[in-house]
């Protein structure tokens, strides 16, 4: 038996249904109809004086919508009968019939409603005559259901509906209420920032958000496509909460593809879902726990995690773990292509599903601002690309978009196009000429050495494009360096890596110079070169005439930087409370820009306090940031303590920067999807976005091409809504059939063996340790070889602050004075000094083959033992002789 509180909650839930008919209702209800209704409702005190005055000020064409919006927000439904009777007297019978025809099957909901269904209209009349609201609650269920229930649905929806009400009626613990409100403050897409003004933990959705959620609520696998900033994450929250409420034992996993997004989305889920009695946890490399991922997935009801952890767990533990999950949500699901971890997860899903041995599979929901066009040139090709995405996510219906509530959606999204600003380059740059000459001499030394040793260098060559100072040059140099690591001639390997490192640093310096100032480029060179005493290094040092080059160290901004300063000055002059985000291509450019903008005299009046936001793929000294530092910088930006943020691609997707009203892409180009995402970073009203680039670069043309492709994507999505669903299903099934023939790897990374592999320094090839000398501390790999300390150069231990706790860490390098290759970090763990190594700094050999691995998951051997088990009953605390420095050396546990 449902109590009155439950019945009232049904009323609130079904209020949302009538909103979908408002465009139809408003077409027939004219302004003079509204005036008559208002007079009666005001006399009965159904609407307030403030509402009466608001309606009087409303334009004639909007009065009906304003009136119904106000009525639908009322907690009591007493106004229903008055309005319906009046509308019939006005000759609006067809409109009333539409409203009263919105019915559900009462027997599927509550027995008492079904029992009284025969006298529904009588109950409505009685309801109008009762002055006491509490007394009026008795006939409320029937009146409410008949007036506000859903329109006729498919059989699948009726089945879902029955399950929903059966669950609510049988489980009193599921007292869940989503209170939809048509007049809400702005909701942000990926953060709770827009909700803070309302406070509380009740999830309130707009009409278009309810529309986006509808297919998923019926149990369909689907891809939801909606603009950045419209609140897709809140749609996901609504779907997840409904999913959990309707049946016990369900589990939701929300996947993100970037570590910084885990905490952000976890905070949202915890805020809105935990108060309903459901467990919410997070899992990523930045906040790993001692609890295995398998156990968390089996025991926690809602888990926000990175894709890589789930993928590794499925491969290394068991693909059968999928049946423990009942809803799997992919944030930024457009990445579910090719060899992305999202797609690898779905390959496992589809393979297990095709085998037919497992019955329960999670429902799949994808979220994206744009599926992209896949570089298509026509709508037909664009359809094929989107069909592939749908097939990969096992979605059998067209992408879900807002159709009926587009006007409301447009009020909460920005559609500003980007501007392009081109700058002429300074062709009399003496610094660039000098550095390019040094690079040419190094290139010649490499080619000469290869020619001199061609008898031992089979199929080994050096062929870089004549495009110094460009990203393509750097890519080729890095490829040459990695290839050099595998040479059997260790001395030559070392030499070539030294050459490659110098070319890379000089190329980076040219990029910094064209983006900022000569002085920043010179500083970068001197901080990153000439750190060893190898004979090749000493000869290369002679090429760099420090005294001559120092004379070129001008603090004059480059033409590009000068234009950037002018643009920022113009924006903040008109709006001193602006927030600006600048997208830079590299960490080095981002960190240099911070200094330049802080030093800029014209900008000092605005107290900009510029800062940078980068990923955690490097140490702090190289521009990398740990998660706590990223969070702190974003908070300062939101609070206005820092008004300009220079970011790398980490801020493209998901990071909430609500207050931003100026977005600048600084002399590089993004992808078509990234362009959509970056436009969405300008969340404030009347935000601007522009591309600033040198006139002789192709960046502006490529961004225009991205804009054209995004328009093609929009047209493709529109077209997909018009074609026969059977055709879509046929296309998707054909793609899945082809994909099923592709073998799905069952293990993570490389095939691993029990063989012992030797680890040698990738630069000097000195043997360091072996694969049997490692164990794990959380996600880190620790070398426990007693001989290791004698082979390493250990930097001073320093204190870092993470999550309000102190951690001690220090640098590890090769002990050879002619090498000094970076190896990893030393740190204090449980009062023990441990050595955490990065496998990319070593060459691996088992006597039969030699290889390198970028990440530990790609290692050809397995590390299973735990450091905690190793020290559980042995060893004393480590004596700390080193002085602890106040500087920070970043390394994350």
Provide keyphrases for this structure.
about 900 residues; alpha/beta; 33 helices; 23 strands; globular; disordered N terminus
Short description:
The chain is of the alpha/beta class and 893 residues long.
Task: Give your account of this protein's structure.
Strands 15, 16, 17, 18, 19, 20 and 21 form a seven-stranded antiparallel sheet that branches. It is globular, with a radius of gyration of 32 Å. The chain has 33 helices and 23 strands. Residues 1-14, 102-199 and 873-893 have low confidence and may be disordered. The two termini are 52 Å apart. It has 893 residues and is α/β, with parallel strands linked by helices. Helix 23 packs antiparallel against helix 24 (518-528). 44% of the residues lie in helices and 12% in strands.
Map the helices and strands.
Elements: H1 4-19, H2 22-28, H3 31-43, H4 49-57, H5 63-72, H6 79-89, H7 93-100, H8 111-115, H9 120-129, H10 133-136, H11 140-148, H12 155-170, H13 207-217, E1 222-225, H14 232-246, E2 252-256, H15 259-273, E3 280-283, H16 293-299, E4 302-306, H17 307-316, E5 327-330, H18 341-355, E6 363-368, H19 379-392, H20 406-410, E7 419-423, H21 430-452, H22 471-484, H23 490-515, H24 518-528, H25 535-543, H26 546-550, H27 559-574, E8 580-583, H28 587-599, E9 611-613, H29 627-639, E10 644-647, E11 662-666, H30 672-681, E12 688-694, H31 699-720, H32 725-739, E13 758-761, E14 767-770, E15 774-777, E16 780-783, E17 792-794, E18 798-802, E19 805-814, E20 822-829, E21 832-837, E22 842-845, E23 850-851, H33 867-871
Helix pairs in contact: 1-11, 3-6, 4-5, 6-9, 9-11, 13-14, 17-18, 19-31, 19-32, 21-23, 22-23, 23-24, 23-28, 30-31
């Amino acid at each position: 038996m449902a109590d009155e509180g439950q019945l009232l909650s049904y009323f609130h839930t079904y209020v949302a249904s009538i909103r979908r008919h408002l465009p139809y209702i408003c077409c027939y209800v004219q302004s003079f109809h509204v005036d008559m209704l208002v007079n009666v409702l005001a006399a009965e005190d159904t609407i307030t004086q403030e509402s009466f005055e608001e309606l009087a000020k409303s334009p004639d064409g909007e009065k009906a919508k304003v009136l119904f919006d106000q009525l639908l927000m009322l907690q009591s439904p007493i106004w229903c009968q008055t309005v319906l009777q009046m509308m019939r007297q006005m000759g609006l019978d067809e409109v009333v019939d539409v409203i009263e025809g919105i019915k559900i099957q009462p027997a599927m909901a509550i027995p008492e409603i079904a029992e009284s269904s025969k006298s529904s209209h009588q109950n409505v009349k009685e309801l109008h005559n009762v002055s006491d609201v509490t007394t009026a609650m008795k006939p409320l269920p029937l009146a409410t259901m008949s007036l506000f229930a859903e329109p006729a649905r498919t059989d699948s929806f009726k089945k879902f509906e029955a399950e929903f009400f059966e669950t609510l009626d049988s489980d009193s613990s599921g007292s869940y209420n989503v209170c939809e409100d048509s007049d809400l403050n702005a909701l942000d897409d990926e953060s709770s920032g827009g909700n803070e003004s309302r406070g509380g933990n009740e999830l309130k959705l707009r009409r278009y958000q309810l529309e986006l959620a509808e297919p998923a609520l019926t149990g369909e696998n689907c891809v939801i496509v909606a603009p950045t900033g419209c609140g897709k994450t809140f749609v996901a929250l609504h779907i997840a909460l409904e999913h959990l409420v309707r049946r016990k034992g369900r589990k939701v996993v929300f996947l993100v593809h970037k570590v910084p997004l885990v905490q952000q989305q976890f905070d949202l889920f915890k805020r809105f879902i935990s108060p309903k009695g459901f467990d919410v946890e997070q899992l990523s490399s930045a906040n790993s726990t001692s609890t295995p991922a398998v156990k968390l997935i089996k025991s926690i009801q809602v888990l926000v995690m990175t894709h890589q952890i789930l993928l590794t767990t499925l491969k290394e533990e068991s693909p059968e773990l999928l049946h423990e999950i009942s809803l799997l949500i992919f944030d930024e699901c457009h990445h579910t292509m090719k060899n992305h971890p999202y797609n690898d997860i779905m390959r496992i899903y589809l393979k297990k599903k095709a085998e037919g041995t497992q019955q329960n599979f999670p429902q799949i929901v994808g979220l994206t601002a744009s599926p992209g066009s896949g570089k298509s040139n026509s709508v037909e090709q664009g359809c094929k690309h989107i069909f592939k995405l749908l097939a990969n996510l096992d979605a059998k219906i067209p992408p879900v978009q807002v159709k009926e509530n587009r006007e409301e959606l447009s009020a909460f999204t920005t559609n500003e196009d980007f501007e392009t600003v081109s700058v002429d380059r300074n062709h009399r740059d003496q610094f660039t000429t000098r550095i390019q000459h040094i690079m040419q001499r190094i290139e010649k030394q490499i080619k000469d050495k290869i020619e001199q040793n061609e008898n031992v260098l089979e199929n080994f060559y050096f062929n870089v494009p004549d495009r110094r100072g460009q990203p393509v040059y750097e890519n080729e140099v890095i490829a040459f360096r990695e290839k050099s690591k595998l040479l059997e001639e260790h001395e030559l390997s070392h030499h070539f890596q030294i050459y490659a490192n110098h070319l890379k640093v000089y190329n980076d310096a040219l990029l910094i110079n064209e983006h900022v100032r000569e002085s920043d480029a010179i500083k970068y060179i001197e901080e990153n070169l000439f750190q060893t005493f190898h004979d090749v290094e000493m000869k290369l040092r002679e090429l760099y005439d420090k005294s001559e080059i120092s004379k070129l160290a001008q603090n004059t901004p480059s033409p590009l930087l000068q234009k950037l300063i002018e643009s920022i000055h113009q924006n903040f002059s008109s709006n001193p409370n602006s927030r600006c985000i600048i997208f830079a291509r590299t960490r080095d450019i981002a960190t240099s820009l911070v200094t330049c903008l802080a030093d800029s005299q014209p900008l000092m009046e605005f107290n900009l306090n510029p800062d940078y936001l980068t990923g955690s793929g490097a140490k702090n000294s190289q521009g990398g940031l740990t998660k706590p530092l990223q969070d702190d910088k974003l908070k300062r930006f939101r609070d206005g303590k820092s008004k300009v943020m220079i970011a790398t691609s980490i801020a493209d997707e998901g990071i909430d920067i609500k207050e931003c009203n100026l977005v600048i892409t600084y002399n590089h180009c993004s992808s078509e999807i990234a362009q959509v995402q970056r436009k969405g970073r300008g969340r404030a009203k009347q935000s601007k976005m522009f591309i600033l680039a040198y006139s002789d670069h192709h960046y502006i043309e490529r961004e225009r091409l991205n804009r054209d492709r995004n328009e093609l994507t929009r047209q493709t999505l529109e077209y997909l809504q018009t074609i026969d669903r059977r055709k879509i299903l046929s296309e998707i099934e054909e793609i899945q059939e082809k994909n099923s023939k592709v073998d799905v790897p069952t293990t993570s990374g490389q095939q691993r063996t029990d063989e012992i592999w030797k680890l040698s320094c990738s630069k000097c090839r000195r043997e360091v340790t072996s694969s049997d000398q490692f164990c794990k501390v959380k996600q880190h790999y620790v070398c426990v070889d007693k001989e290791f300390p004698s082979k390493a150069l250990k930097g001073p231990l320093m204190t870092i602050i993470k999550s309000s706790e102190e951690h001690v860490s220090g640098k590890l390098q090769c002990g050879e004075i002619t090498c000094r290759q970076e190896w990893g970090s030393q740190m204090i763990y449980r009062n023990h000094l441990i050595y955490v190594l990065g496998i990319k700094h070593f060459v691996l050999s088992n006597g039969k083959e030699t290889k390198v691995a970028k990440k530990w998951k790609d290692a050809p051997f397995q590390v299973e033992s735990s450091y905690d088990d190793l020290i559980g009953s042995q060893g004393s605390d480590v004596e700390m002789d080193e002085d602890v420095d106040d500087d920070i050396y970043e390394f994350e546990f």
